[in-house]
Amino acid sequence: MADHLISGFAVVYNSVTDIGGSFREKISPGAFDKSLRERPDVLALWNHNYDRPLGRTSSGTLDLRSDRVGLYFGLNPDDTTPDGMTAIGTVRRKDVAGCSFGFTVTRETWDDGDDTQLPLRIVEEAVLWEVSLCPDPAYNDTSASLSRSDTNPMDNAANARRRLIEKMEREHKLRGIV
């Protein structure tokens, strides 16, 4: 059994997208910070399907961090399950390279814009329920990639946690976050 880490940004702050031709939407920096503090158990799913879990924060198989760019994730899917193998394989081949997320808005503002643009919803605060690997995410700026694989089955969990921490520390350092 190898150890795999899928990582990327499930949310990119201030990225604007079209929601079904009805309105535009963007997520404000830190919109999920309160939720991550108060409701720390978040799921990682395959394409928003609650019957296909890939990881969760409470089990240590999903790590979420909010920074200036967005909501960074590190996911360690179980490669002994069909869904874990699907996630690893499709992300490795780049058939799936983005994410989506399920949330409930708790504070928002609207900008009606003008006759040339759809109204813009600005999500200022929200409860985060799940992040999902998706083949066709609503936000195209999201990302998911296979970061690393190890073949040492004796220390997989410890190695995954160590690599995840090291990667986040490097990324934070590059962004000037100490």
Describe this structure in words.
- With 178 residues, the protein is α+β, with helices and mostly antiparallel strands.
- It has one domain (3-174): Serine Protease, Human Cytomegalovirus Protease, Chain A (Alpha-Beta Barrel).
- Helix content is 20%, strand content 43%.
- It contains three helices and ten strands, in the order E-E-E-H-E-E-E-E-H-E-E-E-H.
- It has helices at 33-38, 82-92, 156-174, and strands at residues 3-12, 17-19, 23-27, 43-46, 49-56, 62-66, 70-75, 98-111, 120-134, 145-150.
- It is globular and about 50 Å long.
- It starts with a strand and ends with a helix.
CATH class: Alpha Beta
- The helix/strand order is EEEHEEEEHEEEH
What low-confidence regions span 5 or more consecutive residues with pLDDT below 50?
Answer: 150-154
Second CATH tier, the architecture: Alpha-Beta Barrel
Secondary structural class: alpha+beta
Mean pLDDT: 90
User: How many domain modules?
Assistant: 1
Cα-to-Cα separation, first versus last residue: 35 Å
Shape: globular
Sheet with most strands: 6 strands, mixed
Roughly what fraction of the amino acids lie in strands? 35-45%
Rg estimate, integer Å: 17 Å
Q: Which bin fits the share of residues in helices?
A: 10-25%
How many β-strand stretches? 10
Q: Determine the CATH topology.
A: Serine Protease, Human Cytomegalovirus Protease, Chain A
Number of helices: 3
List the topology elements.
Layout: E1 3-12, E2 17-19, E3 23-27, H1 33-38, E4 43-46, E5 49-56, E6 62-66, E7 70-75, H2 82-92, E8 98-111, E9 120-134, E10 145-150, H3 156-174
Parallel strand pairs: 3-9, 4-9
Antiparallel strand pairs: 1-7, 1-10, 2-3, 4-5, 6-7, 8-9
